Amino acid sequence: MDKANNNNNIKEDEILTELQSKVDTEAQQIVDKLKELASLIDSYTYVKAIGIGNSAFCANQLVYSLYSHNKFFDAVVDDVQFDYLSNCLTQDYLLIIFSVTGSSNTFSKLLKAAKNAGSKIVIISMNNDSPINHYADIQFILPSSISNLQNKIVLNQLDNRTTLYFFSEIISYYYGIYLEHK
Asked: Which residues are CB-neighbours of 51 under 8 A, at least 6 positions away?
């Protein structure tokens, strides 16, 4: 019996070690992409943080957060702006798109124009299966934090856009680190 328990413990340790290795690898990949994004934000002539609806708050937060690093650019947060931006895109544009769902109806025209113009595209979403993901040069798929709350009359779930909002602060943090080591 002791030998069987010992074998189970060894297998559990191997599984945990392998799992930790995978988590560490994925975390390092995210850090590497954040460092790359920080470098792109610094090097591109035109940077646009893009979001529609509630995701517009996340785009605006990134713009606001980067003020503290003396980086000034615009948020593009409505359909009219999308249309005008689509008409002037070049390879000098970096588009950072915040979208919980990654709706193709919302972003398809803009993303097609951006790809055709040679613009760099970063998509930050919570939908790994979104049809817009194939446009991304860099992609961050964040975990969805929807959580149903029991026994609440007004608030039925926590809005998962808070994760996107927080991620805009993480981007700003990595941009600051990039500037310190530049």
From this structure: 57, 58, 59, 60, 75, 77, 97, 98, 99, 164
Name the token pair of 159.
Answer: 């809005």
pTM above 0.90, yes or no: no
First to last CA, the chain: 60
CA distances from 144 to 114, 125, 131, 161 (A): 27, 9, 18, 9
Each residue's pLDDT tens digit in the chain (182 positions)?
Answer: 566 555 666 777 888 788 788 888 888 999 999 999 999 999 999 999 999 998 999 999 999 999 999 999 999 999 899 999 999 999 999 999 999 888 888 899 999 999 999 999 999 999 899 999 999 999 999 987 655 455 555 544 456 778 889 999 999 999 999 999 98
Residue 143's CB is within 10 A of a number of other CB atoms, namely: 8
Contact 83, 112 (CB under 8 A): no
**DSSP string covering 76-143:** E-SHHHHHHHHHH--TTEEEEEEESS--HHHHHHHHHHHHHHT-EEEEEES-TT-TTGGG-SEEEEPP
Q: Which of these, 145, 143, 47, 146, lies nearest to 97 by C-alpha position?
A: 47
Q: Which of 21, 30, 53 minimizes the C-alpha distance to 167?
A: 30
Distance CA 116, CA 12 (A): 50
